[in-house]
Amino acid sequence: MKLTLDRIRSRKARVGVIGLGYVGLPLAVEFAHAGFDVTGFDVDTAKTSQINAGKSYIPDVAEAQLAACVRAGTLKATIDMTELGAMDAIDICVPTPLRKTKDPDLSYVVRAVEAVAASLKPGQLIILESTTYPGTTDEVVQPMLEAKGLRADVDFLLAFSPERVDPGNRQFTTKNIPKIVGGVGPASTEAAAALYSQVVSDVVPVSSTRVAEMVKLLENTFRAVNIGLVNEIAQMCHTLDIDVWEVIEAAKTKPFGFMPFYPGPGLGGHCIPIDPFYLSWKARQSGFECRFIELAGHVNGSMPEYVVARVVDALNDSRKPVNGSRIHLYGVAYKRDVNDMRESPALDIIELLARRGAIISYSDPYVPALKEGTHSLEALAEAEALHRRPDCVVLCTDHSSFDWKALVNSGIPIVDTRNALRAFSAPNIVRLSGRVAPAPAPVVLSS
Ligand SMILES: NC(=O)c1ccc[n+]([C@@H]2O[C@H](COP(=O)([O-])OP(=O)(O)OC[C@H]3O[C@@H](n4cnc5c(N)ncnc54)[C@H](O)[C@@H]3O)[C@@H](O)[C@H]2O)c1
Asked: Whose CA is nearest to atom 10 of ligand 1?
């Protein structure tokens, strides 16, 4: 074990990263940039070839930095899992989705751990980073790795360290987000903390893998519940004809005891819509019911329907039905300035509108094409979309490159789910909450 620690501290350790997605690739580049000899492992050859060609497919990873690491020989990628045996430390960053039943799907973790177990060597440090329920590391991963007789914290090292990266966030990146580390024993915690402290400015050791797993789920449940609360407040404000955005802006002037969360079209991404259900599933195994998580999931899950209701209002003002109307989405990625479509609420909104007979199109500079159910769509340039004069625009994602002025000046009714048009005041803007549309002029019935 001392040898592993020495190799980590002198940056001579060979580091393997399994799963080169939004989490794994930035981490691999950070280790390589610090001088470690890094090998990235993935099952997707398109990803490994792009990395080996010095190309970045993750917006947060600067291509110049990645290419420099590849040229310097500190970073390479492979699909050959037999090379895992040559690593001193291995970070597992594979997906942890939900099954349709909202139960955890650990199959990716299990497959990655099987690959590690096949060539596990004494002294190796194995760290799970994928978000998962408390108990995964010691109940699932540890027995798999110990199956051939090596003991965790004695013969090899095993820890959990949750990834907290926030894609698209320029201020907080892998390097300056504090890293929580919990090992199955003190030697494992020490080694994992030593590894991360080479590349992360602040490492926070905790007493066990379960605490580390729970920290991540508390953080994401906190977000899901608070977003659920503010989404419900937005719907409430709509019925009370109060501008929810103005309320939040004023409330956040309180210097303590309040943290702003913002309403929107619904939850998206691989974390907030999924992670809390890992926790509620685990708690249910012990007979504990997580009411906040279920309620927040219900409110957040209802937002696409609520947005569609606002679209119906907007069309109604122009005396148009949804059926046959041309509805154009501005932005389909789940959040601003990213290309991530996972769990994006825009997909639900498209589905709900299409089911009612709407003809859908979209613009998104980050998503050139998308497939939702039976719909295959290609993005339109903004100018082309406005030129076609859709009956309504749904502003789903507030990408910073969008030309809001041109959109507002088009006069086309816009349902703004993000308050991106806060600087504008125009009759064609329908806010997510706050302005109940004035009643249209009465229809005169002829006798
Ligand atoms: N995306 C985020 O913002 C974020 C933030 C914090 C934590 N996380 C967590 O990190 C984990 C990874 O998320 P992500 O967003 O990077 O996922 P991702 O889908 O972007 O990347 C996962 C990668 O793992 C690869 N993979 C799957 N099975 C594999 C296997 N058996 N062996 C090797 N590679 C395999 C996939 O091909 C893919 O490239 C998840 O548990 C997620 O909850 C994600």
From this structure: 130
